[in-house]
Design goal:
The protein has 23 helices and 32 strands. With 765 residues, it is an alpha/beta fold.
Length: 765
């Protein structure tokens, strides 16, 4: 299967704030898309329009794999929702009738999504105006289960149906299309799976549901319930296209290629066939600022991180510890809020801020943490209420204030902000006013219902009821939850193994943040956790840079993911059926199970490969073991030709091995990035390796340990090695009486770690 990327759109910066809005097309060829652009909160950049339009073009492609999903990849709180809304609009203009939007299965996120859609599509709300160019109706599936849909209304409007990834919601969706309104099955449907790496595909071992009567059900691998329901819904539809949306795509890239058959059921592919990268807008604050620019001592972002000692983390876990660091963190947060309130009041605005304390997911700890924070707030309230600050409290607040003064000055030096910085006395007065007027609240948020109750009904964002809002709990930094004006984040989650997708989604301090806020924002965590978060950021950037480098129209072979120490990309149940391969130093890799074409079909290709290798070795200077240095691009050309000489299918018993030659090329490309594009190559001829062993298993040794592997290991230090092994291909050895090449790759000692999947794991239950 050929897979293409949508183009080099990631990383492109939007124009500065205040650039001209897009003018709707005069011919109204795309009335919904035009209307969304004309009413966008922030004008769409050229890069973002290209991302949207390229994505729609590829989504609506009618190729043989058109039902395989595309992926819209953005950053945490980095403009994904705005982008897929415009994609929905343009798809509707291009013939899609219904968009079904799957959200993570929480009331909070479903409410936030529904509110956002109703707000952004408001200009397209159905009305009695017969001249209205287009209308869009927005529904929650749980409301539709009671009312259904009227076919005449569906035929004259476009529909967006919001459905939580939850059993009853999905039952209602399937029932709507299958039973209540069967005409819906014939509509052209676009499925947008938001947070697609969450719940949409995971696996379990269960009892077979296809066991004949009277037989004992055997244990088999199955798709978990939500994934099965989504698959059942897709199979109902006459025409559908799927767009996956996430900031953490790791388990999606680690799915096997193509459709699956599990427990005799056909499961549609969820592995992306193309990727579109959401451009970063100019107001975005993310890992670049927290983990990269923060290392520059002249940057205001160098002040973002403040170490939190293990004593403080123990204290928040209900153990013994010193509370001085927590008192300082809360005091500095109060000072930062006071600074921004003074600055915003000058503009006629009432500024409200938020702080998160997230160290434990278990509810049993949260009330104790709230009591601790309330005790600290009480400790600070008393001296402010009496107007007599103890010297140690004043010195502590002054230390936090001075830190903000330093970061603000650096921001001015960088010409990032111009807002005046208030005096320390003014800041103390503002904090005193907050305490005297009780303009603060401490809230425990540790269940879906708590988050839902705190949502702003008009925006779907977490509501800020006071000037100072301190949120404590396990569900606050959840994926999709937007928290405004976040000035302080105390983070202490420290598992034995950091799960890359979960930890990345915790980082709610990312998003569109005013630079004036960033000058007084602080992130408190242990030095160990901070280093792990930094590692995760660079691994994620490695992935995105690979996607950017592939470019438009290039083969999307096998996605490589960075791996490091005690960091894993996702939960094991999401990839339990995938045959995962971890790329490690001096790892040997070759395509297994191959069979060749006939003399008639591959003879000329082999002669061409022979000629190119002859020329390369004549131009080079082989060492004592026959190695020459070649450019990786030249080697990849040879490997591509070698791949074309192989055949696959059930008649050869190797259908599941089709992607392994592509995996070999992907690993070589990965290794060459750290070897300046150079590869050691040796050629071996006259080999007569059998295709299978005596027990019928495919052979695992196209090379030998003495003349091949030993010298290759000695050579593979800072460059990868490729052994071009020319087999005679005798019929007596299971081949087709035609010579062929069976290359072996050995990664270098210094190769960066990576992880990938090409096929379904053998011997599943």
């Amino acid at each position: 299967m050929t897979k293409n990327l949508s183009g080099n759109v990631s990383g492109a910066q939007s124009p500065s704030r205040g650039s001209a809005a897009v003018v709707a097309g005069a011919n109204h060829a795309t009335p919904i898309y035009d209307e969304l652009q004309a009413n966008a909160k922030y004008p769409l950049s050229v890069a973002k329009r290209k991302c949207i339009e390229d994505t729609v073009k590829q989504l609506l492609d009618n190729g043989s794999h058109a039902e395989d999903p595309g992926l819209l990849l953005g950053y945490v709180q980095g403009g994904k929702t705005d982008t897929f809304e415009h994609i929905i609009g343009l798809c509707c203009d291009r013939g899609i009738d219904v968009a079904v939007l799957f959200t993570k299965g929480t009331n909070a996120l479903a409410k936030q999504t529904l509110s956002r859609l109703q707000q952004d599509f408001a200009p397209l709300k159905p009305s009695s105006n017969l001249n209205q160019a287009a209308t869009v109706e927005i529904h929650d599936i749980m409301a539709l289960r009671k009312t259904g849909l009227i076919e005449a209304n569906v035929n004259k409007s476009k529909l967006i149906i919001v459905c939580k990834k939850e059993v009853n919601n999905l039952k209602a969706l399937i029932k709507l299309f299958k039973t209540d309104c069967p005409f819906m099955k014939d509509k052209k449907v676009l499925i947008i799976d938001d947070e697609a790496d969450y719940a949409s595909r995971s696996y379990k071992v269960g009892k077979s549901k296809t066991t004949p009567k009277g037989k004992v059900p055997k244990c088999v691998t199955q798709v978990a319930t939500i994934g099965k329901q989504i698959n059942d819904f897709r199979k109902l539809l006459k025409y559908h296209r799927v767009l996956l949306v996430t900031a953490t795509p790791y388990n999606l890239f680690l799915q096997p290629d193509g459709e699956l058959v599990l427990d005799n059921k056909h499961i549609k592919s969820i592995r992306p066939r193309f990727v579109s990268l959401v451009p970063v807008h100019n107001a975005y604050i993310g890992g670049k600022q927290y983990f990269d620019e923060s290392s520059d001592p002249n940057s205001m972002f160098s002040h973002l991180y403040r170490p939190l000692g293990q004593d403080s983390i123990n204290l928040l876990a209900g153990g013994q510890g010193n509370d001085e660091e927590l008192i300082f963190a809360i005091g500095q947060y109060l000072a930062g809020t006071a600074i921004r309130r003074i600055q915003q009041r000058a503009k006629g605005l009432d500024f409200k801020s938020s702080m998160i304390v997230h160290t434990q997911i278990k509810k049993v700890y949260h009330n104790g943490q709230a009591n601790l924070v309330n005790t600290i707030m009480g400790f600070l309230t008393k001296p402010f209420a009496t107007g007599s600050l103890p010297q140690d409290v004043e010195e502590m607040l002054k230390q936090g204030y001075d830190d903000f003064a330093a970061s603000s000055q650096k921001a001015r030096n960088q010409q990032l902000i111009t807002v005046p910085f208030p005096t320390f006395d003014d800041v103390l007065d503002e904090i005193q006013d907050i305490f005297i007027s009780s303009n603060y609240c401490v809230r425990v948020v540790n269940s879906d219902n708590d988050v839902y109750a705190l949502l702003d009904q008009s925006t779907g964002e977490l509501r800020l009821d006071a000037a100072v809002n301190i949120f404590i709990g396990g569900n606050i930094p959840d994926r999709g939850v937007t928290i405004r004006n976040l000035l302080s984040f105390v983070y202490g989650r420290c598992p034995l193994t950091f799960q890359q997708d979960t930890v990345t989604q915790h980082q709610r301090m990312f998003g569109a943040r005013p630079l004036e806020d960033m000058a007084v924002t602080r992130f408190y965590t242990s030095s160990y956790i901070y280093q792990q978060l930094k590692n995760i950021y660079f691994l994620d950037e490695y992935l995105r840079n690979q996607l950017m480098c592939v470019g438009a129209g290039k083969p999307f072979k096998v996605q490589m993911l960075g791996v490091s120490g005690n960091i894993r990309p996702c939960a094991g149940n999401k990839v339990m059926i995938s045959d995962l391969v971890a790329v490690k130093p001096q790892m040997r890799y070759f395509a297994r199970g191959i069979q060749t074409g006939s003399q008639r079909t591959i003879g000329n290709i082999i002669r061409d490969i022979d000629a190119q290798l002859d020329a390369a070795f004549q131009a080079g200077t082989p060492d004592a073991n026959g190695f020459i240095e070649m450019a990786v691009d030249d080697v990849l050309v040879l490997l591509e030709k070698i791949k074309s000489t192989y055949v696959y299918g059930s008649k050869y018993g190797n259908a599941g091995y089709r992607l392994e030659p592509e995996a070999q090329m992907a690993i070589l490309e990965h290794c060459s990035k750290s070897s300046k594009g150079k590869v050691w190559v040796a050629r071996r001829t006259g080999r007569n390796t059998s295709r299978t062993k005596q027990n019928g298993v495919f052979t695992n040794a196209p090379d030998n340990g003495t003349s091949d592997l030993g010298p290759a290991r000695a050579k593979a230090i800072d460059k990868p090695v490729v052994l071009m092994i020319r087999q005679e291909g005798k019929q007596a050895n299971g081949w087709r009486d035609v010579p062929f090449y069976w290359p072996v790759l050995l990664t270098q000692m210094t190769t960066p770690g990576a992880l990938f999947a090409t096929r379904v794991k053998e011997n599943l239950p």
